[in-house]
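Hi everyone, sorry if this is the wrong subforum. Our group has a chain we'd like a structural model of before ordering constructs, and none of us has done structure prediction before. Sequence below.
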Amino acid sequence: MYFYLKAFCLYKIYMTLLKAFNNHLIEFIEDLIKIYPEDLDLKTSHTFITGMIRVNPRIICNYFYKNIALKYKKEFENGDINFFINKDYNEDLGDEWKTNKIHTTMEKWRELLRESSNENKKKSLKYFENLSKLSELYFNS
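Answer:
Right subforum, don't worry. Here is the predicted structure as tokens:
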């Protein structure tokens, strides 16, 4: 009985962390849409990512953890937003992701960050720091 209770509790923790990650990502995109309401790419990205989350809730968190959180932990900790704005992510993406909407979405976010005020850059970095921490908690719990 104890084993099943423990397994159930772990499952609930994983699902809570995953839901928090996905909700925070959607919140970030919605905040970007508020700042850039005419940007159709952002609205398309919102629809695409929301759909991906419905189909496979783990896919974006998994991708983010392996390709962003682990690789750029030091940069997140240093709060270096310029690194993320100027970084060429083509070398980090596997072939299956280069033609994917995730890649075009990342490029669009970089473009918008370049044009953003310092306050919005700091907020965006905070979103990514939070997403990084949530993905780490999910995979290391």
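For your construct planning: The chain has a mean pLDDT of 85. The chain has one domain: 2-140.
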